[in-house]
Specification:
209 residues, PH-domain like, 2 domains, 36% helix, disordered N terminus
Length: 209
Amino acid sequence: MMVQLLLRSPSARWQKLGGGTLFVTPAHLTGMAELSGRFGETDWLDLGPDEEVLWAGHPSLVPFFGEFVLGIAFVLFGAVGVVLLEPYGLIGVAGVAIGLVLIAHTHLRRISTGYVITSAEVYHKEGLVSRDVTQIRYERIQNTSFSQSVVERTLSYGDVIITSAGTGEVEITLRSVPDPAKLKRLLSEQLDAVYATDGQPASVTRTDI
């Protein structure tokens, strides 16, 4: 799907930079290059003509840090083994290979999960080649909350939980996102804007206020 980027410009209300249909708020996302660079293909984003992207990201690097360090350690010790243990050089090569595979696998696991918050709904994507995409409009959201352990609070990441109206079940969880309190506030602001404009549906009781 062709995607178009329109940015606010001082000389015109909108400045067209590409072809398609994506409205981006510069204060939150600098451009289509960043969005495409972050997610690659963006055809899983079903954006409306007036829908603005407010935030986009992946899980924080912090929970994956240990695996990255372990992979780097395998690479370094493997490289040292190749140089210092010539008769057993294959062991060093195997260590380097294991380290590189671990680093690549960890990186792909992280970037295969993507989250996008727009002015109309929230998207959650899993997978790179085969993809599982969940989206929920603000009109269907009953509650938003966030959860952090002591360690997660210290390292500034955690989960944002979105509960749907009607069933009361968790619809989307933004896992291990940076600064979950800030994202929760962003969602609450968008919900307030939706209800102020359209009126609160009778079947929905807001519990995140």
